[in-house]
Amino acid sequence: MERSLAMLRKTRSQTETSRAMRNFKMASKKKTPLKKKPIARKSAAKKPAPKKSSAKKPAGKKVAPKKTAARKGKAPARKAQRVAKRPALKRAAAPKKKAPAKVAAKSKLAEAPQALALAREVAAVAADKKATDILIIDTRARASSVGYDYLVIASGDSDRQLTAIQEGVDDLLKPRGKKAASVEASPDWVCATWDDGVIAHFFTPDRREQMDLEGLWSTAPRIS
């Protein structure tokens, strides 16, 4: 009896397991088609999208060539107008005027005999006082701007020698009733001016090189 009960239990267990397996298979078969259907629907919905892009492309291509053709046709008309205007400008150009001849070069400098005589007397006094590098420069070409006709330059070794030259000129002109209009003195430079159109500079050698009046009047004529 016990063996028969055991066999019955085994057969029941086998039948239950076989039923469970069948139910599992049936359930799996029912679930698989449900998963495949939404995939098919999604792919079918995505297909019509590229058709819209293909319809838009030809519209853009047709508009572009029309504009370029219109521009190409207008370009030669502008070039023709520019070419036609260029000769008109050349004909309307006014002729060049000739530069007027320089009158100043031909005109003679005004003579100043009294100023030249005084400049030579100042140079002679400087020579008597043992001054060196005595020079007379003709500045009449710029007399209207500088205010004198002749410039006298001389060098002295010390301030005593420079004052001695100036005092010698004053002693020479006193009997004639003449006197320097202005005198400016320093240890290395004495400057004196006269109303006759003469100015004199008495320098020490270092100061004379520093002022370089000869270079300033390099183009003016020298009086011997």
Report what the structure shows.
- This protein has 224 residues and is of the alpha+beta class.
- The protein has two domains: 2-52; 113-223, Beta Polymerase, domain 2.
- Helix content is 62%, strand content 14%.
- The chain has eight helices and six strands, in the order ααααβαβαβββααβ.
- The chain has a six-stranded mixed sheet with strand order 3-4-5-2-1-6.
- The protein is rod-shaped, with a radius of gyration of 60 Å.
- The N and C termini lie far apart (172 Å).
- 15% of the residues are buried.
Summary?
By secondary structure, this protein is an alpha+beta fold. It has helices spanning 2-46, 49-92, 103-106, 113-128, 143-146, 159-173, 205-211, 213-216, and strands at 132-138, 150-155, 182-186, 189-194, 198-203, 222-223.
CATH class of the largest domain: Alpha Beta
Q: How many domains is the backbone divided into? A: 2
SSE sequence, one letter per element: HHHHEHEHEEEHHE
Distance between the termini: 172 Å
Arithmetic mean of pLDDT: 75
Approximate strand percentage = 5-15%
Give the spatial strand order of the biggest sheet.
3-4-5-2-1-6
- Percent helix among the residues? 55-70%
Output the keywords.
single chain; 224 residues; 2 domains; 6-stranded mixed beta sheet; 6 strands; rod-shaped
Give the helices and strands, then pairings.
Layout: H1 2-46, H2 49-92, H3 103-106, H4 113-128, E1 132-138, H5 143-146, E2 150-155, H6 159-173, E3 182-186, E4 189-194, E5 198-203, H7 205-211, H8 213-216, E6 222-223
Parallel strand pairs: 2-5
Antiparallel strand pairs: 1-2, 1-6, 3-4, 4-5
